[in-house]
Every structure is written in structure tokens, then in C-alpha cells.
């Protein structure tokens, strides 16, 4: 039984592969795809099957998915082009007989006003129409997205953001990757061929936080509320 992960030259895809291996999956049962396989040469050295898959060249995706049972499709990073790119992956998965496709979507993708949501909504819709057995993981905000802000704040003493009292339920990429790996392994174990089904879940921690800073701490001077 084989599980493939796309976008393994990126942060999340790499972590999904790491989680699969950490769960004891044999490296030879893991297919790591990337459009630049040189970027994942270290995975090949660890025994992982590395294959080229460029969403813009559907023939490469079809080749990469040969013999794959479960596919984790890490959403692409080229905003504005992703629906057609994801469509190419879904069509390749259908042609390859993939039994379950796990897709990393966005929070409340079908109703969210988030500017990035429409491509995820469209992908969820094309998955639903495809007839593939699908698990949609609506991953929330990466905590790592704040790293640059915090590093800058160390220099300037300020975090500038237009969030007001908005709340966020972020988690680390490693946690989202672990969720994807567990879902993929359960699909492998349960034999998704026999259970054509679609499930969707909001992948987020059960708590939200605000950007409202704690009381100023003179020892660090990190937080200063403007206005
Ligand atoms: N939840 C959040 O906060 C958040 C934030 C940012 C993004 N995202 C979404 O989550 C995804 C994974 O996040 P990440 O941090 O791992 O992003 P990332 O490090 O930028 O990785 C994106 C991956 O997609 C690959 N890719 C892009 N276009 C491709 C194409 N045409 N064909 C094949 N592969 C392609 C990239 O390949 P290359 O290495 O060749 O470029 C890379 O491996 C992102 O792509 C985006 O959809 C979520």
C-alpha cells in the first residue's frame, strides 16, 4: 500500500512525509512528489520514492501517481492558478485509481470572506464532483506565519497589523502535517476502496487567541500598543 504526498519540497509536504515515516510507514511505501526532485534528494537517500509532479504538466502528475493508493494533495502556492493545477491532480488521481485523496483546504472555505478561500472552495467542489473518496482538511492559520513579525518586533518594538479584536486559531505546520499523515494512514488501513465517502473537517486547535498584547513588560519592551 502506497501513500503519496505532493509539494514535498515545501514546508508542509515535507513535514507530512516526516510524520508518515515517524508513524512507522516503510520509506518505500511513501511517494514524495515535487516539481524539482533535486530539492528532495535527501528523501530519496532515506529510501522514500521520489517522483516528479508539476501541476502545470499533467503528464508528470499522472506518472507520479501510478500505483498510489492514498494521495495527500498539498494545496499549491501559485495563487490564481491553483484551481486548474488542482484539477490536473484530481484527474490524474482518478486515472491512477487512487482510493482516497486528502486535500489541505482553508478554514470555512465555502463561506469564508478570506481572499484565498475561493480557490479552495472551487477545489472542494471539483473534488466533490469527481467521485473520488475525499478527506478535506481545512487547515487553519500557521503559527509560523507570525515568526517574521515577531523577529521584526524584536528590532522595532512594534507589531503592525490591522486585526483589531479579530481572533485566530493557529497551529504549527507540524501539527497540521501530523493530522494529514494520520488521516492518510487511516485511509490506507481502512481500505478506502470499499468506502467511497467524502468527509471534511476544520483542522484547528480548539481555542482562539487575539493579537491584543499582554500588559507591557518593561523587561523585554516587546509589546507596545499604538494609539
Ligand atoms: N494555513 C496557512 O497559514 C497557509 C499559509 C500559506 C500557504 N498555505 C497553503 O498551504 C500550502 C502548503 O504550505 P507550505 O507552507 O508548505 O507552502 P510552501 O512551503 O510554499 O510549499 C508549497 C509547495 O507547493 C509546490 N508547488 C507550487 N506550485 C507547484 C506546481 N506547479 N507543481 C508542483 N508543485 C508546486 C511547491 O513547489 P516548489 O518548491 O517547487 O515551489 C512547494 O513544494 C501552500 O501551498 C498554500 O496553498 C497555507
CATH class: Alpha Beta
Bound molecules: NADP nicotinamide-adenine-dinucleotide phosphate
Q: What number of structural domains do the residues give?
A: 1
Order of helices and strands: EHEHEHEHEHEHEHEE
Show the helix and strand layout.
Layout: E1 3-5, H1 11-22, E2 30-34, H2 41-45, E3 49-52, H3 58-64, E4 70-73, H4 82-96, E5 100-105, H5 117-130, E6 134-139, H6 147-156, E7 167-168, H7 173-190, E8 198-203, E9 209-210
Parallel strand pairs: 1-2, 1-4, 2-3, 4-5, 5-6, 6-8
Antiparallel strand pairs: 7-9
Helix pairs in contact: 1-7, 3-4, 4-5
The protein binds NADP nicotinamide-adenine-dinucleotide phosphate (NAP).
Give the gist of this structure.
Helix 2 (41-45) links the parallel strand 2 (30-34) and strand 3 (49-52). A seven-stranded parallel sheet has the order 3-2-1-4-5-6-8, sandwiched between helices. The chain has a two-stranded antiparallel sheet with strand order 7-9. Helix content is 36%, strand content 17%.
Written overview of the protein:
Helices cover 36% and strands 17% of the residues. It has 227 residues and is an alpha/beta fold. Helix 1 crosses helix 7, helix 3 (58-64) packs parallel to helix 4 and helix 4 packs parallel to helix 5 (117-130). Strand 2, helix 2 and strand 3 (49-52) form a beta-alpha-beta unit. It starts with a strand and ends in a 17-residue tail after the last strand. It has helices at 11-22, 41-45, 58-64, 82-96, 117-130, 147-156, 173-190; strands at 3-5, 30-34, 49-52, 70-73, 100-105, 134-139, 167-168, 198-203, 209-210. It has one domain: NAD(P)-binding Rossmann-like Domain (Rossmann fold). It is built from seven helices and nine strands. The strands form two sheets. The chain has a seven-stranded parallel sheet with strand order 3-2-1-4-5-6-8, sandwiched between helices. A two-stranded antiparallel ribbon has the order 7-9.
